[in-house]
Amino acid sequence: MQLTDRHREYWRKNLRITGILLAIWFFVTFVVGYFARDLSFNFFGWPFSFWVGAQGALVVYVLIIGYYAYYMNRLDREYGVAEEE
Asked: Membrane-spanning regions, if any (predicted)?
């Protein structure tokens, strides 16, 4: 199967958004976790590092998943590869 320029552009955009979201995931998971002790201040009565580890990271993960689904649905419609309902 020969890939057209349109196919290549679709996959280039797909890989770009995947890379960006993976970079955000890496930052939230490892970088913020590594510097958690340095972020030690009270946040709603809990140490901020605990809040980031227990709640903040989960919120960011859900936002990443939601944004990826939204973006890919929009990209699929734009390139005519959306699934029919």
From this structure: 15-36, 48-70
